Amino acid sequence: MTAHPHATSDSILAAILTSLDDDKAEEITQIDLRGRSEMGDWMIIASGRSTRQVVSIAEKLTDRLKTELGVQSKVEGKEAGDWVLIDTGDVIVHVFRPEVREFYQLEKMWAPASASESASR
């Protein structure tokens, strides 16, 4: 999971948001983890309408990060397609089917006390 020397958490975040948008991910939420967690700087939560779309979103995202920024990502859950985790080191991305996202409610666990800190797209 080593990024290209010029890939910053902000450039990785921007590339992820663009990729998710291009692939029609829904309810894209970004949560700022800087100073709150050692696991990364940002958490992105998004939904795909079906297991096929969830897997497709994850595959295209990891391919784009590798090609465009030289970022190797650790991926878990792609086989099932209900919830795929993509860990770039600086940015953690969760892509869910809507029912699975509703069940786990990660936004509630990680959202800051002040909702204004968390930008939703």
UniProtKB/TrEMBL annotation:
<dbReference type="GO" id="GO:0005737">
    <property type="term" value="C:cytoplasm"/>
</dbReference>
<comment type="function">
    <text>Functions as a ribosomal silencing factor. Interacts with ribosomal protein uL14 (rplN), blocking formation of intersubunit bridge B8. Prevents association of the 30S and 50S ribosomal subunits and the formation of functional ribosomes, thus repressing translation.</text>
</comment>
<dbReference type="GO" id="GO:0017148">
    <property type="term" value="P:negative regulation of translation"/>
</dbReference>
<keyword id="KW-0963">Cytoplasm</keyword>
<dbReference type="Pfam" id="PF02410">
    <property type="entry name" value="RsfS"/>
</dbReference>
<dbReference type="GO" id="GO:0090071">
    <property type="term" value="P:negative regulation of ribosome biogenesis"/>
</dbReference>
<dbReference type="GO" id="GO:0042256">
    <property type="term" value="P:cytosolic ribosome assembly"/>
</dbReference>
<protein>
    <recommendedName>
        <fullName>Ribosomal silencing factor RsfS</fullName>
    </recommendedName>
</protein>
<comment type="similarity">
    <text>Belongs to the Iojap/RsfS family.</text>
</comment>
<dbReference type="InterPro" id="IPR004394">
    <property type="entry name" value="Iojap/RsfS/C7orf30"/>
</dbReference>
<comment type="subunit">
    <text>Interacts with ribosomal protein uL14 (rplN).</text>
</comment>
<keyword id="KW-0678">Repressor</keyword>
<keyword id="KW-0810">Translation regulation</keyword>
<dbReference type="GO" id="GO:0043023">
    <property type="term" value="F:ribosomal large subunit binding"/>
</dbReference>
<dbReference type="InterPro" id="IPR043519">
    <property type="entry name" value="NT_sf"/>
</dbReference>
